[in-house]
Design a protein that fits this description.
By secondary structure, the chain is of the alpha/beta class. Helix content is 44%, strand content 13%. The strands form four sheets. It has a five-stranded parallel sheet, with helices on both faces.
Amino acid sequence: YFNSYRASLMVVLLIFSMLILIIISMVIFAIKKAREPIVYMATTGYPPNLELPEGCSYHMFMSHVWETGQAQTHAIVRELQLFLPGLKVWLDVDELIDTSKLEESVSDSAVFMIYYSDGYFRSRNCRREVYAAIRLEKPIIVLYKGDTRELTDSMIMECMHSCNDQGSPGSSLVLERIFGDSQYDLTASILNQSPIQWLDGGGFSAASLDVIYYRVLSHLPYYQSHPNELSSKGIMVPGELGPVPAHAPINVLVCDSNNGCLEMAEELKAIASERSPDCLFIFDAAEYFANNAVEEEDPIDSVEDEGAGRHRLISQPKTGDRPTFLLLYLNKLTFGIGGHHNAEMVTTIEYCINNSNIHIILVHEQDSLKGGCKFDEFFKVTPQKLIDEPNNLYGEMAIPLYSMKEYRDVSLKLILMRMLVSDPRLINSSERRYKESLRRMLSQLKRGN
């Protein structure tokens, strides 16, 4: 009797212990899920309203060609659903059973989304899906990854060559539905109908997600009837970059012969003013060097150089003790044309490299219409002495600069973040954790590229 009672008691205690462990595990899981980052509306603090249109079972149909786009498409969809768990996406790996019913699946989705990669329009099934979306007047969103100009040309040529088969509404109409009223210009705001370039890492993927969510939500019933609740700033996505604080004035130097750099510096100043008004001062590099050389001997307010033909940039007295950065805007023309090096640029860079108080920030233009090129090209045109040790000009990762507004804002904020990380005077001791997050963000950008 004793042994039987003891055994029964042990079983009861064991069951009770297991129940306690299960409850604790469920609580931990619930807390963890509650803390997971999700998309929410800035106006309400709650996730978006995902009400589906009548007759639809999915928010979006994801169309792609398997051979060149499957892996990237699946990764994008998983990321979209990670931050917005209620988003219902028709994806082949999850839903495809019978290819003869592709048109029905398109009809069952509120939005038709294309991930364009090489060979998309050459795929018969992809063309079937596109034709069905146009026939059913579904909103069409196009994603792509890679060089904007190259992909645009490829997309147009492939569509014109392939989309004239039986059942096609005509390649002109297909292109019209893909590009909308953008006239094939993909450099304006990507909140319009034009294709969306997908970017990875360093705050860019969050910006990509923001634009995709915005475009999908704008076609759902609730936001069709409440458009004011959905604006370019109405969706909050985990990982988005907010205003970047600076706790000291910053000197930004630009070289007069570095065409396009001054305009970028002025944009940077506007972004910096969101959080820290009047914190960023722009100087012509040569004038700055002259002013500070004179200040060391006999401080004066400014040095005028009327004959140099330089831009009249801001002149401030006694600025040498501020955190100072040379912006180096990299495109095809940075170091000259046809093997003739830009002597002023080379001299300016050498001066800054040899001055421990001046940091160089590399900014890489991505738009081919503005002289953007692959980074490898700079090693062919940059004077070798700047590339080699001890100068090692390209030892730091360059910040990519995009033309589309949403991505350009990220680029400019990353430049400010690089400045904060480079000089401890720009961030106070209470923001050390913030500084570490900046380092991680910049490291993520490096891995993403």
